[in-house]
Amino acid sequence: xxxxxxxxxxxxxxxxxxxxxxxxxxxxxxxxxxxxxxxxxxxxxxxxxxxxxxxxxxxxxxxxxxxxxxx
Length: 71
Known about the structure:
This protein is an all-alpha fold.
């Protein structure tokens, strides 16, 4: 049980670090590309594939945050 709690806590910490890095990236991308709203892909029922910026954001994120320490 203790191991699962540690893993869950670590998972939360890693997600926090990722979101912390992702926020400014999304804000800058939106401003530079005159985007008013960015939606989570899971919340979109139907959308044009050419509007999907996921790969572009991952590319930027990889440059700014090449790794997250899992220790």
